[in-house]
Amino acid sequence: VQLVESGGGLVQPGGSLRLSCAASANIFSIYTMGWYRQAPGKEREWVTSITTGGAKNYADSVKGRFTISQNNTQSTVYLQMNSLKPEDTAVYYCHPMNSAYWGQGTQVTVSS
Description:
By secondary structure, the protein is an all-beta fold. It contains no helices and ten strands.
């Protein structure tokens, strides 16, 4: 399974970005899909996930600002990020939870 994240970039505080993660195989019926992030000098942390049944969970730090969704037909999972803050700056990764698969990540920088 290959995972390719895209959509990162530089955005001002309060701005929005939409990340995408394309999978090489239809794994969404097998795995809960998660987004993780890793800021410089910090541990990688879980941000949000969506189960095979569509249930969504969010870290408290992003609740109300981030939204996870997926398109099973296109084997793509999305992360809509609104009201971005400087502390959201990190490399974002998608990850089928409880698997060994990781994408290369996409850099999100929130700065004025």
